[in-house]
Amino acid sequence: MAGVSELESALQMEPAAFQALYSAEKPKLEDEHLIFFCQMGKRGLQAMQLARSLGYTGARNYAGAYREWLEKKG
């Protein structure tokens, strides 16, 4: 998926353009589980806040970040 720096424009793309660029279906505003994460937690939180500001009310941040996920062996 996109990095935080391109997230805003990515989430505002038309679904077909998003699919063509990222080879994935564009999340829907009503999706309940749109999870963001990063290595330490800061960028994941920023991404979640940005997505919510764009109307993605189901956006969440995995607060433990990648490190926690890795420690728990996924």
TrEMBL record:
<dbReference type="GO" id="GO:0050337">
    <property type="term" value="F:thiosulfate-thiol sulfurtransferase activity"/>
</dbReference>
<dbReference type="GO" id="GO:0070221">
    <property type="term" value="P:sulfide oxidation, using sulfide:quinone oxidoreductase"/>
</dbReference>
<feature type="domain" description="Rhodanese">
    <location>
        <begin position="15"/>
        <end position="74"/>
    </location>
</feature>
<dbReference type="InterPro" id="IPR001763">
    <property type="entry name" value="Rhodanese-like_dom"/>
</dbReference>
<protein>
    <submittedName>
        <fullName>Thiosulfate sulfurtransferase like domain containing 1</fullName>
    </submittedName>
</protein>
<feature type="active site" description="Cysteine persulfide intermediate">
    <location>
        <position position="38"/>
    </location>
</feature>
<dbReference type="InterPro" id="IPR036873">
    <property type="entry name" value="Rhodanese-like_dom_sf"/>
</dbReference>
<dbReference type="GO" id="GO:0005737">
    <property type="term" value="C:cytoplasm"/>
</dbReference>
<dbReference type="Pfam" id="PF00581">
    <property type="entry name" value="Rhodanese"/>
</dbReference>
<dbReference type="InterPro" id="IPR042457">
    <property type="entry name" value="TSTD1_mml"/>
</dbReference>
